[in-house]
Structures are given as structure tokens and as C-alpha cells.
């Protein structure tokens, strides 16, 4: 219990950065020792995130302008770095840090896809393709063994987390058809990042819900397919429909999968309960459906299942906080598991309600 | 152009009532002559709906306590009555008014379902079953001929409107499989009505999106099935998933239907364009997806189609304002058509943006 | 009743532009004949404002790139132009149109301040100072006589409208001390305009209310002081505190003024009722306080008064829709009055509730 | 560091109860050992607050129906009880617990007012007036010495917290006139409690800001006056204007006080910095104004000052989270101080942003 890891955050000025700061600060075995953010380099963290002003030891840290060449200087100073950078940029940064012996948790998409061709079709040229095989997909519930001791963790995307958690147990248990599954997801506006644009203007977000990048055009589609394919034991495709919903945080996913003969809702629920034994995934009791409000700020995912008997369809539902379980808190959960600690060590497990 | 109809609204104190008042007031051939609301009887409309205070001739009308026995007294005074009452209650009221020779537009579910057994399984005993065959389902785009001269109009439900408009043309044209369609709908909180309850508390609605009454439990399911069955020419079932979304107005529906061999998105769009020739339904151009914000307060529905080639799935999407196109404005549209007027006469066709 | 004015809107792609389009379209004596918007020139209005798609005669109009030199070409085509441009830019445009004999309603600040020095201290160099004396401040309730036949109307700012309407009658009637009045105003986010920025990001606007440009730094301060000074018959200063509030539309102002000896709330209410005789300003009855929700989308302002007996303070309160009564609808009201029509001709007088 | 206090919460099913559960759970020296809630007695906490499902040791606790007679049974089991009950009811409960030797932190108004007559004029008959003198007003920054060892703590109201923190230092330092101060406050909807009603319906709260109980009618007025009177060293009155603002959490207060001769903004800021030496109150730097979003979920209050030179007026501003700093987190802060611990021990000091 004596060791405390020195933590760096590269990309600390955005929403996932803010959430990382909050979680690292509350964690008994992590200490924030370095923050970087290109656009705000030279400012104090408290200027960019006034939410930190109540903790002067955090707020007074000065944001640095991290370049990959500077990785060497961090070698002795830090134990682990969280990278919250755009894809493409992130791989080079993570690679440089890894080369210096630092443990890296990457919140971008750069190391999530195992197949280089799929990556490059989706995101463009990969700067460090040789690292793909060393990366572990950081969904602790599904990759626990691989995470032990992992030095490069690819923290899952927000939408994929909300789709994989409810569907993987059904596929593993052979309860649903792996073909033709539909993933209908609704995300809060913070998922679009901190940079302002027309789609995130309050006056054009409030009172409006809209689908976007439907029919396979969203880049999270292959990530969902990879992990659900692993669970099913065979390649598969999904129909993925993301929506922007007028709220700040949260993702609600309702996934539709054709049930195999006579499968009951109890079987679905049991499969999930057996798959998830830590309290960070809750399988809701019969009659209760998930709500993003109940997991706001929390490490927990809430799952529920229903069967539409007239249509032989299983509804697999999941609510998470996109910035917490869907990004920063999950990244720390993966670190916890990589270090042999409890999944939930130091994490917010209660939602902030209301 | 000389005639003006005298209009009554029974149930004027709720949200659909408020929207009816707004639309009737702006309509060049309708004059609000009678308002009733049980809970607020004796108050002036302006006390219950201070949004009307800018029109004293409206605001100063006193809400009466309408009972079916009072129908006779309205016989000479009114031409048409809109009833915005709970199902079960509404049928008796509408029947009494109809018996007195008044034209009735019912916004409840009481006359929407053609099959008595389905009605009673869904809603309970029907007080005036003999009227079912006289009622016309008030979706003008699909029942134009029947609406001409109709004396009893059953104005469609909000969710059904958003599901039927995008799917009916595909089914009529035989472009999609009628079996196993999924209707995933997200509604604003006003859809739950004006009576306060835990689910509509601001603090428990903001920042939360949640599914409810899934897997066939929502009462709008048979209504959707009836109308889509008519379009398909055969009985069918749908998976219907309603959600409560943190906004006041609007419904966004994304429906999923398996395409028939090689059907293209252009074919889907064309089918809809051919089906809908008034400007009250807009089929969006390629690359644009619907947004509830764009139809706020408007009579218009916005439709869009996409095909997921990897999964042979058609996405049929629709945005409406649940209180306007999904209820009160659509009710006046149906009246317009019943009188031989243009669909859009006097209706708000521009959305209130932002 | 035969004439219809041909209307142009310069700056049609922003929020006040959108609201102008909505109001002009509904007006029986105005016809939208020309739209311009620099950033979106060449696009159809329906591409920039999909809320107009239900009215193809509007949506299909192509946005032009208006430059002052082009004013001559509009001379014969249009009767009146509404300019929704940034201050500084607007004066040159309005001047060029005026030079061609067009009537101009300017929604910018360029012609609101009568005193050139105050203008230039607040906004910078004025491009057409010689026009200041020709401009009429377009608050119809206070400048009715001057508006008759006016060719250059300076439509009031949103905050000033909400401050002047409740306070002017008290000052005119000598019921309150003109010194040291406080105007505490809360505006919806649309008041910040359509251009995205950090302050209007949904994730940083929802769940946050914040004051900004307090203590005399907001440019609407001298405008409020000018008009209240006119009402009081002497120069005065006010403490003006604007806030950004997590809603799209609306301004609520609570103003505090020291009452003169023994003034009662009834005297305040009476002064306002006597001052405002059209239904576009409602003085609420005792016991009711204004709410921005009740005037959403409406031409109406709702006023209320209270007296704090322990502190000899009058509270003068006002709710308006910042884009409607606070900008575009009020601009058309001023045009109505300039033409000798009723204030409310063609305007939305009912709020869109909820 | 060995001792852990056993904590009970009476009234655990409401919003302040939920927030207490969250804070107690995260606190290293508190252990939740008892929960009661009249309306939900017999249910598990996880049924009433599904936000707790990620912590089964919390979620599985069964809510009891606490009656004052049951206090004896708690005597040995608990060290401290937080009471989140309506005023009037609370005093009897707190008294019974106190009689059994338990430490009590009361979140109601029952023990906040020192003057019985003022209490009874405001709230009605007091059930245990003899306890008033034993109660300590739990604003740690102002009553630190009295809190040491206190057995009955009256945790401050949300509005008073936001008014007293920014104004007290100015009054103590004699920088402003104590007469005629104005407190204009805007609260999130959660401040109205969990019980649903018309004023908290999402559809009637979103897009609306409204003042209520103005001109001395809000019950928090005498509480503000008591504490500011103590700071000023003389009785005083304030004009207090509360508003309901369309957000879930947060209170922003802008208070206006007439400055004494030549007082500068730097003097105001210094007075506050000297008064508040823990990081739980942040005096913002020049040029930055408070925002409720920055303190969401946090123990911290953010203060700012401005001087309006033209009007000799000081603006004293404060943002807090009404449920956190304005209620439950502050209650635990007071307990911390009563036990000799650091103010911020175990408390959330970072805001949850965004």
C-alpha cells in the first residue's frame, strides 16, 4: 500500500482530460505529476479548468507543450501517462513514451483496432503499426488476463463500451444470432469534444435530437465489430446508429439482436450476471430499465434485457457516462487491473444524482 | 372564403390544448368559441395558459366543465370540437357531441384502432364501439379520400405519426420486408402530459435519456401495426422502443427494415417523394438527416433514408414536433382536408428556430 | 388592404434572420423577396435554415452576398430591408439602402444611440454619423409618434427592451428615484449569436448560469441609460448585470429602483397599464410573476411589479423572448407602426407553450 | 486515524439525502450505518437511488421508517445523524436523537434562526425551542470556534450560503453600507426538492427562468439577515429575489451593496481572501466571474467582486452547488470541523466538469 504512481496527462485541457484530473486526484495510489495541453501550454490548469480551483496543488500545475521528443525527459519523472489526443497524433506520442519505458494508457482510437488494414481504412496511415500487437484493449471485464502487466493500454471508445458490454455475454453464450445486430446509441454533447462547432452550440443542441454518421459511417463501427466478433467467435457486422442528444453526459444504447430458439429474458440476464462479477457493471432487475442520469460521473455501467416475444428479438440495453465509464474512469479502471488492484480502486462508483 | 367555423376545445388546459389554441387562433377560417377543462373549470384561459395573455379575446374566455350531457347546448353554437381527453373518457364525450351533429376531431386513442378486440386488449372497455367504423384515421397523407367530409376524425398518436410516415411508402412500394421492423423513437418530455410526476421532474429528466415500455408494452404499438399493416397489405408486428429524451418537444424515430434484394436509397427516397406531395412532409436530400429542432412548432415532418449495405438494412428516419405534427397541428390538418381546404391552411409551416 | 410590401433581409442566416423569416412569412402584408448572408452566399435558405423546408417558396430562395454597392440594384425591387448585421458593418449597409430610397429597419446598435460621442466610446468610429438624427428608436410603445413614416428605424437591443419597458412608466410617473437603479438580466444563449464559441458550447452552457460584462462593461448599458433618461427627463446611470442562462430563448429582467415616499405596488401597476394600451405588453395581475417560457416566440412582453416594504424598493420585472420581442418581431412591430398599421398586425401574439 | 464514525441519514430518499449518501460513502472516517425515509420505508436504497447500485454495501441497505420514539434504539448504534426532513418535523426528530446522546446535523431550517419569534413568524410553532441556543449555525468559515465539539449543528440554507459567503467579509471590514443590500439569486430546479409539482415539470422548467417569492416572502430572508447582521454588528434587512433557473444544480448569487467612500475592488477581494483561508472558498482573480458549472458536485464556493464606479456599487458574486456546498457537502464540512478534522476531509473539492 505504500507505492504511489506518478501520473502524467497529455491532453489535459479537454473533457476527457478534465475527467482524468478528477479521477486521478481522488485515487489513493495515483498522484498527478505532469499535465500537458498544446493549445493552452503555459497556462495553469486552474485557468483552463476552474473546476479544479478547490485543489490548489492541482490548479497551480502549469500545462506544458508536450512533443514526442520530450519523452526522454519524462522517463524518470513519471510511471504512467494517460494520452487524451486526437487519433493519428496519439500513436506517435504514445510510442515515444513507451520507448522510454513508461506505461501508457491511450484514450484515442490508435491502438484499439487489431487489424492494421481496418485501422488505415478507417483512420488513415498508422504512425507506429508495430505497436498494435503489444496494445491491450482496455475493457477490463473482457480482457482481464491480458491487462495484467500491460504497458500499452488502448482504452475503449465510448460508444463501443456501451455496445459491447450488453451484447458480448449474449454472443459468448450463443443466445442471439450474431448477424444483423442493430446498435442504436444516444450520446450527450460532451462526446463531440470541447472544441466549439455548429453541432454543439447550445441553441442548436437543446431541444434537438439527431442521428449522424449512420449506416456504417461512424468510425466506432469497426471497433464494435472487432470486439463483438471476438465474443461470437466469428467476424460479424453491425448496424450502428449514433445520435446527439440534448444532454451533457451519458450514452444510452439499445441493441437489437435476433434471439435463438426460445431464449428467455432470464437467460440473457443470467449470461450477463455470470460475465460481470464486479460491481462496476450492474445487471438491473426485471422491470427496471437503464437511465443515463443514474450513472452520471460514475464508473458503473447499467445493463438491462428484454425479449420481444412477437418478434423474437432481444433488446440489450446499456447506460454509461460517456466521459467516465466511456473514457477517463474506464482508463483508470484498466490501469488498476494492469497493476493487480481492484477494478474500482479509487473510482467514483456512485452516480452523482440528480 | 366567407365562412368561419366556430370551434370548441374540450381539454384545453393541457399541452395539446395549449397547442390547439395557438393553431386555431392563427387559422383564418377557425374561431375559438368554447373552451372546457375539468380541473380548471371556472378559470380564464389566461390564468391556465399565460402564453395567451397577448390575445385578450382568447385569454379572457372562461373554461367550462364539459359533461357529455351538456352536448346538446353546444349544438347550435359550434361547428367542430377538438377533444383532448384521456382515452376511455374521450369516446363518450365525442359520441355525445357527434350525436348532436357536431363534427369531432378526437386527439385520444379511442377511435384510432379499427379492431375492437385490439382496442379492448390495449385500453380496456370501449364506451361507444359502434362508432369505430365511422371514425377516420386522421393521417391526411394516407387517408385523404376518407377524410373528405368525415364527421369523426381520430387524430393519430405522436409516436405512430413518426413511424408510419417514413415506413408506409417503403411498404406500399414493396421495398422492405414487412416482418421484424424495429421502430426506435425518442420523445420530448411534453409527450408525458402536463400532470407532474417523478418521470417528468426537471432534475430527473435533464441529463437523462431512458427507454420505457419496451418490447410491445407501449399502447401505440398496435396503432403502428394497424397502419403499417394497411400499407403492407398484410398483418405485421413491429418492435417498438420509446424513449424519454431531455427536451420539451419533438420525436425522432429511426426505423430499421430489411431491404428487399438490391433496393437502393434512391428508391426509398423516391417512394417517399411520390407518396407525399404536399410540403407538410419533406424528404430530405442525400446527406442530410432529420433533427427535431428543425420542426419545432411546425406542421412539417422531415424524413430521410439510408441503406446500410453491409447489413441489407434500410434506415427510415423521421423528425416531428410531438405536440404539433404529432398532435394538435395534425388534428387541424385533418380538419382542413375534411373541409376540402389545403392541408396547410393556417398552419405553422416554418419551424421556430432556434 | 391591397398593398403588400416587398421585403429584403440582409443577414438572413443568423438567429435574428431566422426569426425575421418566420415573422415576415406569416405577415399578411409582407412578402419575402430578397435574402442575403455573407458567409452562406449562394446557398438556398433551406440549406442554412432547414426549419423553412415546409415553405418551398421561402426555402428555395438563394442567399446573395450583399455589398453596399449593390444597393442600387435593389431600389426598384424592394420596399423595406431588415438588416441583421454586426454593428459597424451595418451603418454603411443601411446608409446605402436608405440613399436608394428604401425603408430600413436596422437590428444592429448602429443607430440606437443619439449621442455620437457615446456611440464612438462604446462601439468605435461610426461610418455614417449624419444619419443618427434621422433614425427613430424602434420601441413602438415609447416612440409611436416619431415612428409614423420613419424611413430609418433603429430596432432596440434585447436587454434594453427588457429594462426599458418595465422602468420607463415608473420614471415618467415619478414613482421611483432615477439614481442608482439596478438592472439584473438573464438571457438565453441564442442572444450570443449563431457563431459557435466556448461560451455557447452546450456542455459548458447547460447546468451553468454566469454573469458577464458586469459593472458597466456591456454595450447595452448606454442604450438603457439613454431611454430611461428620456423617461426620467434627466441623464442617469444604471448598474447593468447581464447573465447567460441555460436556455435557448428569453430574457428575464428584475430591476430594482428606490421608491419615492409611500409609493404602492398598485401605483406602479397602474402607471404601466396606462403607459401600455396595446396587448403586446401585459401587466400581470397581483400575485403573478413573469416567466420567459410564457412569451416564447411571441411579440408580447410580460411585466410585473412588487414593492419590498422593508427596504423601500420597487421590483420592476419583465420577461420577453430575446429573438422575438427583443429583436425580430419587435422590428416588424416598428415597421407596422411606421406604416400606420396595428402594432400586432401579422405578429405571433401567443407564446409557444410549452 | 483509526476511528470511523457510524452515520445515520434520516430522509435519505430525497435529493439532499442522495448527496449525503454520495459524500458519506467517499469519506474515509464515516461509515453509512443507517438510512431512513418515510415514504420509501422498506425499500432498499438502491431501489430509490439506483445511482448507488455500483456500491452494493450501500444499495442493499433497507430504508427504515424513523419515528422520534425510535431514537433510543439508535443510541448505541450510531455516532452522528444527518436529518434531511421538512422544517417543523425535523426539530422533534433532532431533539429525540440529541436526547439520546447522538450528534445531530440538521439540514432543515429548524435550528438556523436564533430568535424564536422570527422563527415562529416565518415557519410556525417550534417543537423544541429550548434547543435553539445549543444549536450552532454550520457555516464553518464564519462559526469555526463554536463548531468545535458542537452536538447540534444547523446546516445553512442553500440561498443563505450563497449570499452570506460573499457579503460577510465586506460587512465585517466595513467596506459597504449595511442598509439596502440586494441579493439576486438564481437556483437550479433541484432546490425545489424531489416531490414533483407543476413548477418542476421539465416542460415548464426548461426554457423558462422565473422569480418567485420576491420582496421578503421567501423564508430564507431572515436567515440571510441574521448572519449578515452578525457580520455587520447590527440588525439589517435585505431585498432577496430568488429565481428558478433551468438547470438541475447550482446557485448563482449577485449581491449589490453600496460601497463606502472610495472603496476599491481590490479591497473587497482582499477582505474575502483574508476571511477565507481554506481552499473550500475561492476568490476568483480579476477578470474572472463565477459560473455554477465550475462548482458542480463540489464543496467549493467561488466568489468574485466588481465595483461599478458610476454608481458606487459593489457587486459581490458567488457560485455554489445548491445540493453540495448549499446542503449536504457543507453539512459534512461542519461535522469535520466539529470533530477537529480539516474542513475538506473526504469532500469532493473538484467540480464535475462538464
Report on the structure:
The structure is a homotetramer of 354-residue chains. Chain A contains 12 helices and 13 strands. The first copy, chain A, is of the alpha/beta class and 354 residues long. In chain A, the strands form 2 sheets. In chain A, strands 8-9-7-10-13-12-11 form a 7-stranded mixed beta sheet. A 6-stranded parallel beta sheet of chain A has the order 2-1-3-4-6-5, with helices on both faces. In chain A, strand 12 and strand 13 (313-320) form a beta hairpin. In chain A, helix 1 (15-26) crosses helix 12 (324-338). The first copy, chain A, is globular. Chain A starts with a strand and ends in a 16-residue tail after the last helix. In chain A, 65% of the residues are buried. The model of chain A has no long low-confidence stretch (mean pLDDT 97). At the A-B interface, strand 7, strand 8, strand 9, strand 10 and strand 12 of A face strand 7, strand 8, strand 9, strand 10 and strand 12 of B.
Total count of helical runs of at least 4 residues of chain A? 12
The strand line-up of the biggest sheet of chain A is 8-9-7-10-13-12-11
> Count the strands of chain A?
13
Name the chain pair whose interface involves the most residues: A-B, 51 and 51 residues
Helix content of chain A: 25-40%
Largest beta sheet of chain A, briefly?
A: 7 strands, mixed
Strand content of chain A: 15-25%
Q: How does the helix and strand content of chain A classify structurally?
A: alpha/beta
Order of SSEs of chain A: EHEHHHEHEHEHEHEHEHEEHEEEH
Low-confidence stretches of chain A: none
Rough outline of chain A: globular
User: What is the CA-based Rg of chain A, rounded?
Assistant: 20 Å
- Report the average pLDDT across residues of chain A: 97
Give the N-terminus to C-terminus distance of chain A in angstroms.
34 Å
What is the quaternary state of this protein? homotetramer
Amino acid at each position: 500500500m505504500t507505492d504511489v504512481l506518478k501520473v502524467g496527462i497529455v491532453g489535459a485541457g479537454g473533457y476527457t482530460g478534465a475527467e482524468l484530473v478528477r479521477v486521478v486526484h481522488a485515487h489513493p495510489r495515483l498522484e498527478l505529476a505532469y499535465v500537458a495541453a498544446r493549445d493552452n501550454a503555459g497556462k495553469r490548469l486552474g485557468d483552463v479548468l476552474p473546476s479544479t480551483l478547490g485543489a490548489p496543488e492541482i490548479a497551480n500545475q502549469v500545462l506544458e507543450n508536450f512533443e514526442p521528443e520530450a519523452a526522454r525527459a519524462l522517463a524518470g519523472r513519471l510511471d504512467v501517462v494517460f494520452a487524451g489526443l486526437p487519433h493519428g497524433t496519439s500513436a506517435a506520442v504514445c510510442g515515444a513514451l513507451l520507448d522510454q519505458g513508461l506505461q501508457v494508457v491511450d484514450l484515442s482510437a490508435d491502438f484499439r483496432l487489431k487489424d492494421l488494414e481496418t485501422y488505415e481504412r478507417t483512420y488513415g496511415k498508422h504512425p507506429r503499426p508495430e505497436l498494435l500487437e503489444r496494445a491491450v484493449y482496455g475493457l477490463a471485464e473482457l480482457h482481464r488476463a491480458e491487462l495484467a502487466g500491460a504497458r500499452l493500454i488502448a482504452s475503449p471508445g465510448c460508444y463501443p463500451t456501451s455496445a459491447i458490454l450488453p451484447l458480448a455475454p449474449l454472443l459468448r453464450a450463443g443466445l442471439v444470432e450474431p448477424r444483423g445486430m442493430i446498435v442504436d446509441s444516444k450520446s450527450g454533447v460532451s462526446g463531440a469534444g470541447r472544441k466549439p462547432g455548429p453541432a454543439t452550440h447550445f441553441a442548436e443542441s437543446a431541444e434537438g435530437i439527431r442521428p449522424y454518421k449512420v449506416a456504417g459511417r461512424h468510425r466506432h463501427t469497426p471497433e464494435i465489430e472487432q470486439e463483438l466478433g471476438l465474443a461470437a467467435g466469428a467476424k460479424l457486422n453491425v448496424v450502428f446508429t449514433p445520435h446527439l442528444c440534448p444532454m451533457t453526459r451519458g450514452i444510452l444504447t439499445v441493441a437489437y439482436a435476433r434471439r435463438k430458439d426460445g431464449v428467455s429474458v432470464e437467460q440473457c440476464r443470467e449470461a450477463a450476471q455470470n460475465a460481470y462479477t464486479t460491481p462496476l457493471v450492474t445487471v438491473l432487475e426485471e422491470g427496471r430499465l437503464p437511465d443515463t442520469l443514474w450513472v452520471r460521473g460514475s464508473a458503473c455501467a447499467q445493463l438491462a434485457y428484454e425479449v420481444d416475444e412477437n418478434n423474437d428479438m432481444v433488446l440489450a440495453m446499456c447506460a454509461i457516462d460517456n466521459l467516465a465509464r466511456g473514457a477517463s474512469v474506464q482508463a483508470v479502471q484498466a490501469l488498476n487491473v494492469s497493476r493487480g488492484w481492484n477494478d474500482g480502486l479509487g473510482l467514483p462508483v456512485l452516480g452523482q444524482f440528480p
